[in-house]
Sequence to fold (221 residues):
Amino acid sequence: MLIQKFNYTFCDRVDSPAGRKYKTPDGKLLPSVTTILDFVTDKSFLTDWREREGEENAAKITESSSYTGTHLHQNLENFLNGSSEINGNPMAKMMFGLIKQNGLKHLSEAWGTEVPLYYPELYAGTTDLVGVYKDKESIIDFKNARNVRKKEWIENYFKQLVAYAEAHNIMYGTNITTGVILMATQTGMFQEFIIETDEYSEYKNMWFDDVMRYYTEVVLA
Fold:
């Protein structure tokens, strides 16, 4: 299914207490998209959630979700690379089936999976998939959730999509203005979220505001 439309450049990932960074081919260390979003996001809701669940149970839920998400992404990557290998717990396999059957059927071209991208001098990251979805060149990310999500709850996901799209555009001369989230829930539901045109522009402005805040308060402070 993969079409080698671009010669994607590998970037080394560097994890540190200050957050994840990527080393670009010219030797620059750039903060990851997730590091920037983690800095600018109010995480009080996570504190409240841990208090409701209790630290021990919250840790178990987080570990289980991480395990499931890792195998979900690996299974989808395997599938897109032509492999039939499916690993992980039954939840990961179920979620893989949901996204494969309901989401990837709309994918007409896959240009790359786990694609490393960077916006020169500003940020870097890795997107799950670049390709043509519902006839539009798109950045596509896979997500897993415990329950059905509302669109207004996942603004950071959309900012991620825009960050990757803008990096891809500047690196490879594309004009991607569509972002897609394909999400499977533990309750067996599939959700598709798409941003484009005016909504894409809105999240683009929000994202670059976040980047500027990060550099002002962290890098230049």
About this structure: The chain has a mean pLDDT of 92.
